[in-house]
Design goal:
alpha/beta; Rossmann fold; six-stranded parallel sheet; 11 helices; 12 strands; 36% helix; 19% strand; binds NADP nicotinamide-adenine-dinucleotide phosphate; Shikimate_DH_fam; Shikimate dehydrogenase (NADP(+))
Length: 294
């Protein structure tokens, strides 16, 4: 239940910057949490065109914005405008959360925390002998690679379709300890990788609404996934995706992208409010309602 609340002369500002930003689910999720906590904050959508980014961030400082989320197309472009960037965000090369600390902008990336949260809470185990196979080498794959490294995976295999982008992806980790466990592969190598996977992650948009009948893998390919492996799809609508449905039929454990979305928001709100307790269930339920999954 959300409580009624009013803005006051002291209302503090949070928000999300993006272009476009009107489809963002973050305002609904964060405002529900703020209302539940009875705090005098508001979280607003800020549509900011790329050429206005610098001036907008200067304006945010002038009006004492407490913090903001960053979405497409600003996740990399914001980095030179910040005073500090956490090592995690530096490793990924993207910032999704900014907070004002000691009159300076500090950037971090909570997608890693969002990604690993359901793995840690539901399947507590030692990952140090485990193998992960990651489909896709875009922005989300970077957070997944960093998250798997943080969990201690023995081998991190990333599979992509474009040789040049795949090589750039591999090279981008050259100065990081992550490169020791990371290998990139072309899509044709999947038949030899899938039987080794303890965790198989889809970071491609294949299977996302409205193309709900598509899957990044054929039934034959997924049939080689070991029993008891975890199949994790970053997509949160539909629930489940074709990919997860097929994997579950093979005896795999399925995780969909909704919890990652919830937990990256939870981690951001904790930073802005500087408190450890935020109403996770309210945030989850709000997202489910907005996605028609409620
Ligand atoms: P992105 O940067 O555009 O990356 C997409 C990746 O998928 C690229 O490597 C792309 O390959 C690959 N790909 C796209 N279509 C493909 C196809 N038909 N066959 C093979 N590979 C294909 O996007 P992103 O930001 O990483 O997001 C990816 C997905 O994750 C989206 O569905 C997004 O909604 C989801 N996501 C979920 C969360 C969450 O909180 N649950 C967070 C972030 C993202 P190329 O490089 O060759 O184009």
């Amino acid at each position: 239940m959300t409580k009624e609340r009013l803005m006051t002369g002291k209302t503090k500002l949070l928000g999300v910057i993006g272009h476009p930003v009107e489809h963002s689910l973050s305002p609904a999720m964060h405002n529900a949490a703020i209302a539940h906590l009875g705090l005098d904050y508001v979280y607003l959508p800020f549509p900011i065109a790329p050429h206005n980014l610098e001036i907008a961030i200067a304006g945010f400082a002038a009006i004492d914005v407490v913090g903001f989320s960053v979405t497409i197309p600003h996740k990399q472009a914001i980095m030179p405008l910040l005073s500090e960037i956490t090592p995690l965000a530096q490793a990924i090369g993207a910032v999704n959360t900014v907070s004002r600390q000691n009159n300076q902008w500090v950037g971090t990336n909570t997608d890693i925390e969002g990604f690993i949260a359901p793995l840690q809470t539901t399947y507590q185990q030692d990952w140090s002998q485990k193998v992960v196979v990651i489909l896709g080498n875009g922005g989300a794959a970077r957070a997944v690679v960093a998250g798997c490294h943080q969990l201690g995976f023995a081998k991190i295999h990333v599979v992509g379709r474009n040789v040049q982008r795949l090589q750039e992806f591999a090279n981008s980790w050259n100065n990081s300890p992550i490169s020791e466990n990371l290998q990139v592969h072309q899509w044709e190598e999947l038949p030899k990788l899938i039987p080794q996977a303890n965790l198989l992650v889809n970071t491609t948009p294949i299977g996302m609404y409205p193309k709900v009948n598509e899957s990044p893998l054929s039934v034959e390919e997924i049939a080689n996934l070991p029993k008891g492996a975890i199949a994790y799809d970053l997509i949160y609508i539909p629930k489940p995706t074709q990919f997860l449905e097929q994997a579950e039929k093979q005896g795999a454990i399925a995780i969909n992208g909704l919890e990652m979305l919830v937990q990256q928001g939870v981690a951001a709100l904790k930073i802005w409010l500087q408190q450890e307790t935020v109403p996770v269930e309210v945030m989850r339920q709000t997202l489910q309602n907005h996605l028609g999954l409620g």
